[in-house]
């Protein structure tokens, strides 16, 4: 007698969840139709009211306002929108780093330009023909300094040594016009220059200080550009198929379910985005190292390396050196004659007073130390703020772009319906996504574009580390612990220069925790055959043991 009522009750219970709180009347799809049209899609074939959702492949298969075509269109739309969010976030970081580079580059170039202009303005009246007949020597020096700063493949110390050598040869001839001085004689004189120190201590002192300052300035400027370029390239990495499905489920499935006003649960959004950006999060370690290294070099530039004073007074140091040669002309000439012999008397000797003019150094340098201090202070603030960019990106996107609910909200979209989200939030990086409940992530297949950018960060960080102690190193020596094989194709010419003669390693950071795969390399075939033999042995032992226990 109770069978009918009991069966009828079960039927009612079974049918209730399919409708949720919609009652017996199908809910209107007006909100979804409005959204769908606003996204640029045709409303032809879009349901007016909920339909059965067995056809859905991504969203829950309850009653729905979405057809298969709508689901596919929403999936493609969610992919393009999420990728646009990534690029927009990246452009903000790029803009910050590019602005810092532009500010420092403008300051440094202006510093060098002012020094060069001061030399051109003052030297003609100070030194007469000693300057006017050797203008190209000075121009070449500043040209070489700029080339080095712009990452040309030149040796700065050699460029400075060449300048002093050329200057000494020309000034010695002009200061001794009564003698016929051959190229061979000049070669002899140059060999004794280190001993006689015709320019005093200026060449050695300027070489030490200018080299440190230029190395630091060049690496510092490069660091901003490399950081910006890494963000640009990483922001262009496409989403995986699994990620696209998860983003669609996060952003548009609630609309299909008639829950347009329900925001995604915060932790649900975090798991989706952390799964999608798992490879990007692995940039975090090397990215922080780059930011810290830039801050360290910034302190050097505005501190011990004293870029403002060193670069801004190059013309004054040159004037000091020339004056030293003029004041000690007789003594230096005597020493040269003792070492190289007396040159022949010239029949074209000139007694022009212009050539013998003595100029007292009255040059002054306008300090821009305060401007540098402000630049460094601003840069350090921005760099500190960007340190955690890659691991805070998921929460930033969820709160500002996806508009996820608050953490305490228990009436949010959890991927299936309106309610609370129970799974825990995954950690950062590829290795931590092995149990991500929202995105299927293959932790054994890291994105190679991002791995290449991790290497770029390592290269630049090492260069900054060396600049911090005054060393200028070739890029192939960027790290003592980078051994093994790898591809150097990702290293752009403007960063690595032409010095890159061997490929750097693609050693991955420890955070990846990616197991090495067998079956690759020379011994690949034998490696693959070993498990089958071991398995047979184990199975044999297991059978014998089982037979023994059975008895």
Summarize the topology.
Layout (H helix, E strand, L loop, with lengths): L2 H17 L10 H9 L29 H60 L1 H4 L2 H15 L6 H20 L3 E2 L2 H9 L1 H4 L5 H34 L5 H11 L1 H4 L9 H11 L1 H4 L2 H18 L5 H6 L1 H14 L1 H12 L3 E2 L23 H18 L2 H12 L11 E2 L4 E2 L28 H21 L24 H4 L27 H27 L1
Antiparallel strand pairs: 1-2, 3-4
* Strand arrangement in the largest pleated sheet: 1-2
- The number of distinct helices, counting runs of at least 4 residues, comes to 22
Helix/strand order: HHHHHHEHHHHHHHHHHHEHHEEHHH
Mean pLDDT across every amino acid position: 81
The whole-angstrom Rg is 36 Å
Q: How does the major sheet shape up?
A: 2 strands, antiparallel
What share of the residues does DSSP label as strand, in percent? under 5%
Low-confidence stretches: 1-24, 351-359, 475-551
Q: Which overall shape is indicated by the principal axes computed on the Cα atoms? A: rod-shaped
* Number of E strands: 4
The N- and C-terminal alpha carbons lie at a distance of 54 Å
Q: From the helix content, strand content and strand pairing, which structural class follows? A: mainly alpha
Please state the oligomeric state of the protein chains shown.
Answer: single chain
Question: What share of residues is helical?
Answer: 55-70%
Describe the structure.
With 551 residues, the chain is an all-alpha fold. The protein has a domain at 79-346 and 365-432. It is built from 22 helices and four strands. Strands 1-2 form a two-stranded antiparallel sheet. It has a two-stranded antiparallel sheet with strand order 3-4. Helix 12 packs across helix 19 and helix 14 (284-301) runs antiparallel to helix 18 (369-386). The model is unreliable at 1-24, 351-359 and 475-551 (pLDDT under 50).
């Amino acid at each position: 007698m109770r069978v009918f009522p009991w069966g009828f009750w079960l039927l009612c219970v079974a049918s209730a969840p399919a409708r949720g709180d919609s009652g017996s009347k199908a809910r209107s799809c007006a909100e979804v139709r409005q959204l769908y049209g606003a996204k640029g899609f045709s409303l032809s074939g879009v349901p007016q009211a909920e339909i059965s959702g067995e056809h859905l492949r991504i969203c829950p298969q309850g009653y729905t306002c979405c057809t298969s075509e709508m689901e596919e269109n929403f999936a493609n739309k969610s992919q393009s929108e999420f990728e646009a969010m990534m690029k927009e976030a990246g452009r903000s970081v790029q803009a910050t780093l590019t602005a810092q580079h532009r500010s420092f580059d403008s300051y440094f170039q202006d510093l060098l330009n002012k020094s060069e202009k001061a030399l051109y303005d003052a030297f003609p009246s100070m030194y007469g023909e000693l300057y006017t007949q050797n203008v190209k020597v000075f121009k070449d020096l500043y040209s070489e300094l700029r080339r080095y700063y712009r990452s040309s493949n030149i040796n700065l110390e050699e460029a400075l040594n060449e300048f002093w050598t050329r200057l000494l040869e020309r000034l010695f001839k002009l200061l001794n016009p009564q003698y016929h001085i051959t190229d061979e004689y000049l070669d002899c004189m140059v060999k004794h220059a280190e001993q006689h120190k015709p320019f005093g201590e200026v060449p050695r002192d300027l070489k030490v200080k200018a080299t440190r300052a230029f190395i630091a300035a060049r690496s510092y400027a490069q660091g901003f550009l490399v950081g910006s370029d890494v963000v640009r390239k990483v922001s262009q990495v496409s989403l995986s198929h699994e990620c696209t499905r998860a983003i669609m489920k996060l952003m548009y499935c609630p609309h299909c379910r008639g829950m347009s006003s329900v925001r995604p649960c915060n932790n649900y959004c975090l798991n989706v985005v952390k799964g999608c950006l798992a490879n990007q999060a692995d940039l975090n370690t090397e990215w922080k190292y780059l930011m810290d290294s830039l801050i360290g070099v910034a302190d050097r530039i505005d501190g011990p390396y004293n870029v403002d004073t060193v670069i801004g007074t190059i013309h004054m140091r040159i004037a000091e050196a020339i004056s030293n040669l003029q004041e000690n002309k007789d003594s230096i000439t005597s020493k040269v004659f003792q070492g190289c012999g007396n040159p022949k008397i010239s029949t074209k000797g000139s007694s022009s007073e212009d050539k013998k003019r003595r100029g007292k150094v009255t040059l002054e340098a306008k300090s821009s130390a305060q401007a540098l201090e402000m630049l460094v202070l601003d840069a350090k603030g921005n760099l500190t703020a960007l340190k955690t960019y890659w691991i805070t990106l998921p929460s930033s996107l969820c709160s500002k772009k996806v508009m996820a609910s608050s953490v305490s909200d228990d009436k949010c979209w959890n991927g299936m319906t309106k309610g609370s989200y129970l799974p825990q939030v995954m950690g950062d990086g590829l290795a931590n996504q092995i149990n991500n409940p929202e995105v299927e992530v293959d932790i054994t297949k890291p994105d190679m574009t991002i791995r290449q950018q991790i290497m770029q960060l390592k290269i630049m960080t090492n260069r900054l580390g060396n600049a911090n102690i005054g060393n200028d190193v070739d890029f192939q020596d960027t790290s003592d612990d980078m051994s093994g094989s790898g591809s150097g194709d990702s290293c752009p010419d403007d960063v690595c220069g032409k010095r890159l003669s061997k490929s750097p390693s693609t050693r991955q950071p420890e955070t990846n925790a990616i197991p090495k795969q067998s079956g690759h390399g020379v011994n690949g075939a034998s490696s693959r055959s070993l498990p089958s033999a071991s398995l047979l042995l184990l199975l044999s032992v297991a059978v014998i043991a089982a037979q023994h226990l059975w008895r």
